[in-house]
Structure formats: C-alpha cells, structure tokens
Design brief:
Order of helices and strands: HHHHHHHHH
Strand content: under 5%
Helix content: over 70%
Mean pLDDT: 78
Structural class: mainly alpha
Radius of gyration: 22 Å
Distance between the termini: 43 Å
Amino acid sequence: MVLWSVKATFLIFYRLLFDVSQAFIRVWWAAVALTFATFWVCIGSTFTLCGSASDLYDFRKCSSPEALHDIRATYKYWCALNVGTDLVVMALPLYMLYGLQLRTTQKAILAGVFSLGLVVAIVDILRTVESLRSGTFSGVALWSSLEVTIAVIVASLPLYRVLLTPKGRNNLRSRLSGERRLSGEPYKSDR
C-alpha cells in the first residue's frame, strides 16, 4: 500500500506542477488509470494466491506444488506491474522537462531527481529475483521493507531542497527567525 501511496503522491505533485498542458493532462489521466488499475489487480490477486480466498490461510493448500507454482507466477506479474507503473510515473515529468526554459544542467538535475524512482524499481526486481531464487518467501519481508523505505526516501528528496541549497537554508532561517520574533523567543544564528 505504501508504494502505491508514494506513486499517487508523485502523480498529484506532477498534476500540480505541470497543469499547463492539455496533452500532459491526458497522459497524466492515463497514468493515474494505469496505476489505479494495477493497484487493484495486485490487491485482488492476493486473495487468490492459494486458490480461493477461503484457502488463503490454509497452510496445506498454500504449500501444495500447484499453489507454490501460482504464487511464483503471481510474484512475477506483481513485479512486472509494479516496475511498469514505477517507470510510467518516473517518465511522466520527463516529457515536460524538454519544454521548460531552464539551463541544460538544471534540466539534467531535475531529470535525475525524477529518475530516482528507478532505484525503487531495481529493489523490486531484486526482491522478486531473490524470492524466486531462494524458493522460500522468508526474505520477502526484508526486501519489501527495504523497497518501501527507499520509496519514502525518494518521495521525500524534493522536499530536502530547502536544506541543501544556500538560498533554501537562508529562507528557512529567515522564516524561523520571524516565527521566533513573533513568539518572543531570542534567535541564535547557526553561524
């Protein structure tokens, strides 16, 4: 659920950021529909991993050779759907970068930030490969936790611009200074 929430957050961010082009809005709606549909396919298929939904918690039915084959196949298509939507969400803003009136280096930096979702896709592929290679799904929890953690970090990176640029730090300091003045608290500079 967290991964799909991160994708939804990026999609909403892109809509707010690039709400100037009708072509982009049409592509954006297609990306939203694809992401929404793949989310429900992954959620819905969870209930049929061991056959019917009532068999999901029956160890004997979930450990049968047929069920294990189905689980492995499900993991493969979950990975394909997840990586596919990661790539769509990641590529969506790259379309708009071409038309922005920025220096090439600024466009490259923005493209790099938008492309950080590739790290999440790589971890998803590694998780799936390791789960299928080992034949057990005990490592899934570790890889899933790692994937979610990386996704949240990647989603948060654009917000850290304030802390990573001199102009952003100065703006933050001046805002904090103003808030402290309003509260009567003395302001001590970090310098």
